[in-house]
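User: Show me a protein chain along with its predicted structure.
Assistant: Here is one chain, sequence first, then structure tokens.
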Amino acid sequence: MDQASFVGLRALGREPAMQLTWLYPHAIDEAAVTQFSERLAHGLLGRLLQRSPLPWGRHRWVANPVPGPVAWFRDPLPRERLPELRRVLLDLPVDPERGPGWRLAVQALEGGGCALTMLVSHTIADMRAAGLAIADAVAGRPLDRGFPARSWRWSPPMLARDSVESLRALPDVWCALAALARRSRRARLPASSPSVRRDRDHLEPAVDAPVVPVVMDAGACQQRASDLGVASSTLIMAFVARLAFRIGRVDASGRVKLVLPVSDRRSGDRRGNALRSITVMADPDACRNDPRALQRDFKAALASLNQHGDDLSPLFPLIPYVPLWLVRRLEQEVLGAGLPVGCSLVGELPPDANRPCGEALLLQAAPLQRYTASELAQLGGVLFVACCRVGEQLSCTVCGYVPDHVTSHAELMPFVHDALADMGLRGAIG
């Protein structure tokens, strides 16, 4: 999946990244930030992708123990204007091949506080991997992940190794072709499908899809879920369904298509993205008063995933053979038609993930991607909610954009507030 993520980046011209932001009531020492950055570079994040010399070869991870540069924004911002920082962060590049694969930024706030932000290429790490890497860095656990040093791509040993690996992978390629044929017979895209998109206009400016962070008490959320007879994860899914309903991101039947990444990460896992995904169709009206049906559907989708796997993983052996122009044309099919709504239930992160440079408040863990207005229009907008727990704090970050309807932080906030109220939830909305 890591190579699929990288190929998508190069084909679409935009790098999906994660933005993690912590709030401090005081200034943080530059030496502490430097130490945190150096420790991160000696863990799971201390790597980059090196391409295979063969067009159809497998790329590999190589060590990169050099931390990315820290951006210091010393002009204090009012706390309520912190969302404006995202527009600046769009211009701070992260790249899983050329580097830096991740970087830190510090924004001074009025009143003496500050915000520490970490940008991570999603090819380098998913949210759980990033959380574990942060916890390792805070605890001072530099880990040798066994990544080789970067070498000359065209060296004879590299060519020989990749040629042998390509030959060994041929049976998997044939199986993937068979899986693709079966999938094509089940569901064909009509010729007029909007998945056929024009190439990205590099002169068109990036659009900052607004983000609203919500911090809730984990115990209160669990109690509300118990009152409704469901798990707290189901309650969050119901909130997301209500939010999608309120901003109009529903299909023709009024249902919400929830797409949930499911972590497949194991101990010692070196993958950047150890993820599979499931899709659950939610009835937003039923979710409001009785989300138990949503929980049953979620459990059934998980059981099916564990028993039969997902639809995309069997196709990954084909990734090295897919030309970039075809990846661009297949973007909508990969995302799925029908206005998908991303819902990432990360689960509980280690307590150290909340104190990168001393005890802090994890305000948000949000996607950051350089969409243009025309791309967002072709996709029908975006809605993505990420939720994680650290200690007794539950952090939910809503990223939403609906063309000509929800295009700013101020326009998104009321929808988030009302969707929380629909489910009897309370939290500090940023």
